[in-house]
Each structure stands twice: as C-alpha cells, then as structure tokens.
From TrEMBL:
It holds the Pfam family Peptidase_A25. Keywords: Hydrolase, Protease, Zymogen. Autoproteolytically processed. The inactive tetrameric zymogen termed p46 autoprocesses to a smaller form termed p41, which is active only during spore germination. It comes from Clostridium manihotivorum. It comes from the Bacteria. This is Germination protease.
Amino acid sequence: MINVRTDLAVEARELYKQINKREADGIISEEEEINDIKVTTVKIINEDGAVKIGKPIGTYITIDIPEFTHYDGEVMDEVSDVLNDSLNKLIDINPSKTALVVGLGNWNVTPDALGPKVVERLMITRHLKAVMPDSIDDSVRPVCALAPGVLGITGIETGEIIKAVAEKIKPDMVICIDALASRSTRRVNRTIQIANTGISPGAGIGNKRMEINEENLGIPVIAIGVPTVVDAATIVNDAMDLVLDEMIHQSTQGSEFYNMLKTIDKNEKSKMIKSLLNPHVGDLMVTPKEVDVVIDSVSKIISNGLNMALQPSLDMDDINKFMG
C-alpha cells in the first residue's frame, strides 16, 4: 500500500508504478483526450489492487482542467461537458430516479467550501412536482440537496446526517461533492475526480470520519472532488527531489559525491522531512493565494456539469432559465 497523503486514485496508481516499475495487479488504467482535456479512468477491479494503492474497489475518473479555465468561460463550458459525459458513465440516467446531492465541507473556510458552493448553483426540483405539477413534467428528475457543515460546527458526524436524511426521503442515489488533498502542487485546483466508491470526509487531511458509501447508506454513492490543498511536507520533499536530481546531473559521474547522492533513499528522506517539520508546522496544508477565485470558478464547472447530468432532457438554456 502507498503511504502518501492523497485522495486521488490516479496519483496513488502513478506512485505505485513509479516505485515498483510496473502497473499494480488488479488495476486497469485508460487515458483519452476530449477537446484537449485529458481524462484518465482508473479501475480497481479486485482487493489486491485496492490494497496496493490504498483505494476501495471501483471506478475513478480524473479530469485535468486546462490552464486559464478560471478566466475563460468557453473552456469552463467544455470541462462541464466532459464532466457531464463522465458522470453519465457512473449514474443511472433514468429521470424518475431521485438524487440527493450533498455539499460536504466548511463554508467558512474557502479551500473547504467547494461542496456548499456547488449546492448553491444546483437545479433543485424535488419539491416542485408537489407544488407545481402542471409546470414540471416527468422528464425532470427530482433533485434535492443539502450542505450539512462539518463536525466542528454541528457536533454531528456528516455521515450520520446524510444517513438520517436518506432514510427519511429515500433517494435512489447520493452524490457528494468535497474538497480533496493532492500530493502534487500541479494538480491543486486543476483536477476533478469522480468515483463510484463514495467518500470519507476529511481523510485527505488526516481526519478520518464515517464513510459515506453504498455499504453504509444502502444506495449508490457518487463522489466528486477537487484537490484544493497539498501537504507542506510534500512540497518540501518535491523541492528537495528537484535539487538532488539537479545536483546529480551536475556532478561528475562516478565521483564520491555523485555516488553519495545516488544512494540517498527518497522514502527515508520523506520520513525525515515529516519528522523534522512536524514540531514546527504540524500537519500544515497549503493552498494557492487565489483560492477564492478558483473555488468560485470550479464550483461553476461542477454545478453546470452536474445539472446537465441530472437533467438530461434539458439543455443549459432551460436550466439557466429555471435558475433565474
């Protein structure tokens, strides 16, 4: 099992392959490009694969967001279309099925506010079939949503809230949106992961909570996440790797200094960095300074893609008219 702090299956798979020089048994990976947008699908097909990369059995679709998306409405729409197509591979498109969308996270903390911001932009329809039956036809899926907050605000496990609501309203599926943690700075705010394995809130930053998955809720659970933070120790470790690689490149091959650099165990170095930093910064997580703008843009991408996936009989013009 890879002992690295990341919520992304694609990163866990890459790390295993990098360390072991081969693909993990029980893992199937496919890559494609749609309108210059890279989409990677990682399928964990058995327990052996799950143990080796530390992720549950299931399908993980990763969308790499192109640069400048946060300022380019056209590219944002293209990413939303790809998200819609990816979601349709994992959810039941039957419009009679009720969907409960859950925006996980703390709305008071910008890097953790992705889920609540997506919920604000969703087309909510479950109540309308009762109050406006003549205006809502059978092609419109019943959708309801909530942003339950976090344990520190409510004193209640998020999983307990979702389970109680699900038992009351009996949705056919739950879709959770959450901020994740990455082990690579290049993926922060630049990657969307969709998985049919559910989610464990707070796992990426070391806070293990009740898992929100089909086993606990009794219905399919889709998780949509974007890494918004990276571990500070990871940044230091990656920077040191770059320095070491450059020093090796500039050293005379076969020299004593060259041989010493080549014998450095990168896994041991990583452990040393964590132990040295911990007394001073603890489990420090880092996010870019423009995170407020980024979260706003990414939440629009996800909400648009989700609205299209949940309402396949409507186009974006119809959805926008409904949203006012």
